[in-house]
Write a structure and sequence with these properties.
The chain is mostly helical and 237 residues long. It has helices at residues 52-68, 70-80, 106-132, 138-162, 168-175, 195-211; strands spanning 85-91, 94-99, 180-182. The chain has a three-stranded antiparallel sheet with strand order 2-1-3, covered by helices on one side.
Length: 237
């Protein structure tokens, strides 16, 4: 005569060692030497992101392109800047150059024109770089700042070269005594050279933070809830 079959205890009466939830069905553990899927071929960047060589190449192209935009900035500065009027006179058989309008603010306007143009170029360059390369990256940000600084230096030297002659005494002699002529184009506030790179960095970082791609959050398979069909996955009471 056989003993009656005893039904298994309910899930909440299972021993404590049965409370551990194993991996879900179909889960395959990765090999120890296999690179993680979130890394690229070189093991340093995301699956969709470029490698280091590609980022450095893009940064070099960005630096050159932004710096060459300084040619346009220099042309606009030379064209839009107000002229500082000067006049020459002979005192004790020597030529002396004076400001024709001693209360004029043309010199301040020259610096202000360069600064405003540099701010606009910084915003436009940052926007263009962000639209072309949305993922950003340290090399790209550095290239944007370096390119903006080089572009400002190029614009400054180009505007000075295109402007009136630097030798004001020779210019006064050539036009004659008492004749008004324009002073050389000069940037008095050298801090304006930093307007372009600073604005470009701030705008680009802001655009990347607001509209840049987000990395998906990785979920640990062991953090998933228990399988409703598995009686041993029920929590203990």
């Amino acid at each position: 005569m056989t003993a009656p079959l005893t039904p298994p205890p309910p899930p909440h009466e299972q021993p404590a060692h049965r409370a551990w939830q194993g991996p879900p069905p179909g889960y395959v553990a990765p090999e120890p030497d296999a690179p993680d899927a979130s890394y690229g071929a070189h093991g340093s960047y995301g699956q969709d992101g470029p490698g280091m060589k590609t980022e450095v190449r893009e940064a070099a192209v960005t630096t050159v392109a932004v710096a060459l935009a300084g040619v346009l900035l220099g042309l606009l500065w030379w064209w839009l800047s107000p002229h500082v009027p000067l006049t020459g006179d002979v005192v004790d058989k020597s030529w002396v150059v004076y400001l024709k309008d001693t209360e004029g603010e043309q010199a301040v306007g020259v610096d202000g024109t360069f600064t405003l143009l540099a701010l606009a170029f910084g915003f436009v360059s940052a926007l263009a770089v962000f639209l072309v390369r949305r993922r950003g990256g340290v090399p790209l940000v550095v290239a944007l700042g370096v390119g903006g600084l080089l572009g400002s230096l190029l614009a400054w030297r180009l505007g000075v070269w295109l402007g009136p002659a630097q030798d004001v005494i020779a210019h006064a002699k050539s036009v004659g005594k008492g004749v008004t002529f324009s002073a050389p184009l000069k940037l008095g506030a050298k801090g304006a050279l930093l307007a372009w790179p600073l604005v470009a960095l701030v705008v680009h970082l802001g655009l990347t933070a607001l509209f840049g791609p987000r990395d998906p959050e990785r979920q640990d398979p062991y953090e998933q809830g228990p399988d409703p069909k598995d009686p041993y996955g029920a929590p203990l009471e």
